[in-house]
Amino acid sequence: MLTKQEIHILRQNAKIHKEIFEEIKKILKDWTTAIEVDNLCWELAKKHWVLCGFKWVYGFPNNICISVNDVVVHGRCLPEVVFKDWDLVTFDFWVKDKKFWINTDAAFSVVIGWNDKNPRAAKMIEANIKALEEWIKMARAGNTTWDIWAVIQKVVEQEYWFKIVKELTWHAVWKKLHEKPYIYNYWKAGSGQRLKVWMVLAIEPILWETSWQITDRWDWEIYIKDWSLWCQYEHTILITDWDPEIIV
C-alpha cells in the first residue's frame, strides 16, 4: 500500500511533468530539432532537482523519447531528427525523484504546425484521447482489463477505423519504469487481470493508421511496417477506492 509521502511525491512529480510538457509545446515549430527538446528536458529537470527517467535505462542515451511519424516507440534525439510542418510527433517523458526513485510516465502527440497541416494525424490524436478518456472511466478497483480492452477497441477500431497495436503493452509504474502487470490494448486470451486499489498504471493506447504490424531494425527505434502514421497519449493514474486519480 502506498504511503501518504509516496502519493505526495507522485503529485509533486506530476507538477514538474506538466511544466516540462508545456515548455516543450512552446518551442515546437518547423525546424525545431529533437536535440533542442532533449536539452530543454535536461535543463528543466536539473532546475527542479529530479531525474529524466529514461536516461540510461537499458542504455537509452537521451532524456526523452521522441518518435516521428512511422517511428512507433523509443525514438532517439539524433542530430538528423528535425521537425517539419505536417509531422506527427510523440513525446514520451519520465520524471524520477532523486530520493525515493518514484516515477511518473506520460506522453502526448502533436502535429507540427497545428492540426490543419495534417488532418489525418489530427483525427488519430482525437481518437487516441477519446480512447484514453473512456479507459479512465473504467479504471476502478474491481474492474478488469477485459472491460477496458472492449472500450479501447470499440473507440479505436469501430468508431474511428484505426488499428490497435498488437505487440506492445502498457504497464504499471513505480520505482521502475516498467513494472508488472504488463497489459495489452486488445483482448488477448489468458491475460486479463483485475484492477486493485493503489495500483499505479501508465495507461497508453497506441494507435496506428493502417497497420498493426511493426518492424524492429535492431536499434532503439521500432517502426510501423507499412510506414504509416502512429500516435500515443499516456497518463499515470492511481487506482483508488472510488474514481481513479489522474496523476499526470
Low-confidence stretches: none
Mean pLDDT: 90
* Topology as a string of helices (H) and strands (E): HHEEEEEHHEEEEEEEEEE
- Could you estimate the helical fraction of the residues in percent? 25-40%
Number of helices: 4
The main pleated sheet reads as:
5 strands, antiparallel
What topology, given as strand order, has the largest sheet?
Answer: 8-7-9-14-15
The strand count comes to 15
Radius of gyration: 17 Å
- Euclidean distance between termini CA atoms: 20 Å
- Secondary-structure-based class equals alpha+beta
Word description of this protein:
The structure is a single chain. The protein is built from 4 helices and 15 strands. The protein is α+β, with helices and mostly antiparallel strands. A hairpin with a 5-residue loop joins strand 4 and strand 5 (103-111). The radius of gyration is 17 Å and the shape is globular.
Annotation keywords:
248 residues, 5-stranded antiparallel sheet, 4 helices, globular
What's a concise summary of this model?
The chain has 248 residues and is α+β, with helices and mostly antiparallel strands.
